[in-house]
Amino acid sequence: MATTPEYTAAEDPILSMDSVVSGYGNTTVLHDVSIAVEEGEIACLIGPNGSGKSTLMKSIYGFADIKSGTVTLDGEDITGRSPQENLKNGMSYVLQDASVFPNMTVHENMLMGGYVFKDDDRAADRAAQLYDEFPVLGDIKEQKAGTLSGGQRRLLELARALMVDPDIMMLDEPSIGLEPKFIDDVFERIRQLNDLGTTMLLVEQNAEKGLSVADRGFVLASGEIKFTGTGTELLNDEAVGRLYLGG
Ligand SMILES: Nc1ncnc2c1ncn2[C@@H]1O[C@H](COP(=O)(O)OP(=O)(O)O)[C@@H](O)[C@H]1O
Ligand SMILES: [Mg+2]
Q1: What pLDDT, on the 0 to 100 scale, is given for residue 1?
Q2: Which of 14, 100, 221, 238 has the fewest Cβ atoms within 10 Å of its own Cβ atom?
Q3: Band (4; pLDDT cuts 50, 70, 90)
Q4: Domain 2-98+166-244 belongs to what architecture?
Q5: Could you give the 3-state DSSP secondary structure of residue 6?
Q6: Which atom from ligand 1 is nearest to the alpha carbon of 173?
Q7: 11 C-alpha to ligand 2 centroid (Å)
Q8: What are phi and psi for residue 50, nearest 5 degrees?
């Protein structure tokens, strides 16, 4: 694995993968992957299609099969822990194919995001707070989610993931399929949430955009981490640029 000279690996990571080999059933996708993210950082994972970025996120969260290695959250081994447990423990995850429930209203979708509370009042209070932060959603909360525009839907996916007031958010391709003005909107939200203390792990096909907001970046190819560095270092790295940024 190549690292750039000024880069220092996370010393006291909130989230890490150590030598993880994982995949689906008999299929191995990740080969000996290690990453570590410090509390309060934005970390961004980039890499070609099919390189295993979504699988890496799924391996952390309990949606893929880990064959060896460990996932650690705040010093605790969480390898193989279920998605529900992870959500309860303050990690939320917006999947690449995140989908809203089209036949439910925006508000009902929001309440689903807080189902782990098993407390309707608490969920309703949290949703109300989020409508203050996302007035666009408050305005359309009685609308069926299936009628939303792409940008509104992405906002709902983000806000729904915030229902648990997460310490860590994992976002798989938050900008995919969005018009440029909505992409800026989503990245602005990511920065704001991070400013409020939420640690972010992003996967981005828009590598320039993703790395430009990232404190730490990882380049994954063929299921292996090939480069790691600060976002700026990776953006300026000649080999990363040539191989992975189309430069
Ligand atoms: N549920 C699954 N079962 C079997 N193979 C899968 C599954 N999901 C993804 N894969 C395979 O894992 C590899 C990596 O996919 P993925 O993690 O989605 O890559 P990326 O997100 O980087 O595009 C691909 O070869 C893909 O076909
Ligand atoms: Mg993917």
Answers
A1: 60
A2: 238
A3: low
A4: 3-Layer(aba) Sandwich (3.40)
A5: coil
A6: 21
A7: 28
A8: 80, 5
